[in-house]
């Protein structure tokens, strides 16, 4: 990596010296020990922890006071919420990072070298958003992790409900409402939110729903009733 953008901004006074990017986010497992048995059983559940993303950089204050440059450096990096971080050698992947810790550079005249202590609370890295029209074949999630889709529906005829089912898992979402032609429905599975004609309407949400995620690889979705609406599936593939 030669440089990176953070929050959509790249600084030309930075030279990246090293970046220890882990191949996957840290995983924490639980084990159950059994008396008189060597070792332990591995429990099925595991926890994916925040991903550290330290970057060692050299600051070069070319014609600028180094202390003033550090003020600009801090203004760029310090935020309350994670911001997109895109390495220049991985331009098709986006991490969401915050600074967690201090930057203690070794200074020599107009140069300062130190480690930016980035960490990604969301441990996954993301690709570009994909939009697929349902009915054109299976939906391919190219990532290595499950991802949550947003379902956009435009009704072309009247219907008393809308149900979409993920064939591989059996999960489904059903919305009960007296739809008419022209109505628009958005199902945000990440937020468990139902939006009808730009208004949040959770009374239409069927309480026995089993929301699903798109698995890595092929995903097949079916809709009932199929002939009264056009369904667009939006999602961002993500990698472990």
Helix content: under 10%
Q: What is the CA-atom radius of gyration, in angstroms? A: 24 Å
Structural class: mainly beta
**Weakly predicted, low-confidence segments:** none
Strand count: 22
What is the H/E string? EEEEEHEEEEEEEEEEEEEEEEE
Shape: globular
Distance between the termini: 20 Å
Can you describe what's shown?
The protein is mainly β and 240 residues long. 5% of the residues lie in helices and 48% in strands. It is globular. The model has no long low-confidence stretch (mean pLDDT 93).
How are the SSEs ordered, and which strands pair?
Elements: E1 4-6, E2 14-19, E3 27-33, E4 40-48, E5 51-60, H1 66-77, E6 83-87, E7 95-99, E8 106-108, E9 111-120, E10 125-126, E11 130-133, E12 139-141, E13 150-155, E14 159-166, E15 172-179, E16 184-188, E17 193-196, E18 199-200, E19 217-219, E20 221-224, E21 229-235, E22 238-239
Antiparallel strand pairs: 1-6, 2-5, 3-4, 5-9, 6-7, 7-9, 8-9, 10-22, 11-21, 12-19, 13-16, 13-21, 14-15, 14-20, 16-17, 17-18
């Amino acid at each position: 990596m030669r440089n990176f953008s953070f929050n959509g901004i790249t600084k030309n006074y930075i030279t990246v010296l090293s970046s220890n990017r882990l191949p996957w986010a840290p995983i924490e497992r639980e084990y159950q020990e059994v008396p008189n048995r060597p070792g332990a059983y591995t429990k099925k559940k595991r926890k994916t922890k925040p991903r550290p993303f330290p970057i060692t950089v050299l600051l070069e204050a070319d014609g600028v006071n180094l202390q003033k440059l550090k003020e600009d450096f801090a203004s760029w990096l310090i935020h309350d919420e994670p911001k997109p971080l895109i390495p220049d050698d991985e331009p098709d992947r986006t991490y969401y990072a915050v600074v967690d810790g201090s930057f203690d550079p070794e200074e020599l005249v107009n140069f300062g070298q130190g480690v930016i202590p980035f960490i990604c609370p969301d441990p996954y890295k993301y690709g570009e958003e994909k939009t697929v029209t349902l009915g054109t074949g299976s939906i391919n999630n190219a990532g290595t992790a499950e991802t949550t889709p947003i379902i956009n529906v435009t009704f072309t005829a009247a219907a008393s409900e809308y149900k979409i089912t993920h064939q591989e898992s059996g999960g489904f979402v059903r919305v009960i409402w007296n739809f008419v032609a022209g109505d628009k429905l958005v199902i945000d599975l990440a937020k468990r939110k139902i939006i009808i004609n730009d208004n949040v309407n959770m009374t239409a949400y069927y309480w026995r729903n089993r929301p699903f995620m798109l698995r890595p690889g092929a995903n097949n979705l079916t809709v009932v009733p199929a002939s009264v609406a056009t369904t667009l599936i939006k999602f961002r593939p993500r990698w472990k």
